[in-house]
Amino acid sequence: MMPRSNLDARRRHFEAEMARRERAYVRYALAGAAIAAVLVAAIAGIAALRGSDTTRPSADKPAAPAITPMRVTVQIFNGTTVTGLARKYQARIDHLGFVKAAEPASAPPEGFKAESVVFYKPGQKAKAQLLRKRLGIRNIEPLDDVFANLTASRTQVVLVVGMDRH
């Protein structure tokens, strides 16, 4: 058996070592918390500088209303020499729920098309894209000079049916 003084010295040494380790653990924990706080502040600062606030939706920008066929006024021109093609497509447009802007008409010869085209007035591209997708037409363009003077004032989108739809 060890003498009592030796045991007391070992116990004191052990207790001192344990206290030193506890202080080290506390220092490491505090250092880790400080690093985490700095990282969070840096990320928040970068997000603020970029102007992105992903935590809440913006109240400044109201969502645009969904574009549906009943919000799109369409005027149809027959861009071919095939009789009745514009009326055929007017019936299809009506069935899809689009609004007729004017009676279907024949395009002037300079407006004849090999492929069908969806034209749009300024600010109406999204509506033209809806019509294009519903009809499976590849071509979409801003309204050109040939049809600009022929369209009704309430027309938003112009469909010129070409020979590809014959």
* Largest sheet features: 6 strands, mixed
Name the beta content range.
Answer: 5-15%
Q: Briefly, what CATH class of the largest domain? A: Alpha Beta
Number of helices: 4
- The string of secondary-structure elements, in order, is HEHEEEHEHE
The CATH topology of the largest domain: Alpha-Beta Plaits
Helical residues, percent: 40-55%
The overall pLDDT average reads 87
First-last Cα distance:
111 Å
| Uncertain residue segments | none
What is the number of independent domains?
Answer: 2
Could you give a quick summary of the protein structure above?
With 166 residues, the chain is α/β, with parallel strands linked by helices. It has four helices and six strands; from the N terminus they run αβαβββαβαβ. Strands 1, 2, 3, 4, 5 and 6 form a six-stranded mixed sheet that branches.
Task: Explain what this protein looks like in three dimensions.
The structure is a single chain. Strands 1, 2, 3, 4, 5 and 6 form a 6-stranded mixed β-sheet that branches. With 166 residues, the chain is of the alpha/beta class. The mean pLDDT is 87. It has 2 domains: 1-62; 69-165, Alpha-Beta Plaits (2-Layer Sandwich), CATH 3.30.70. It contains 4 helices and 6 strands.
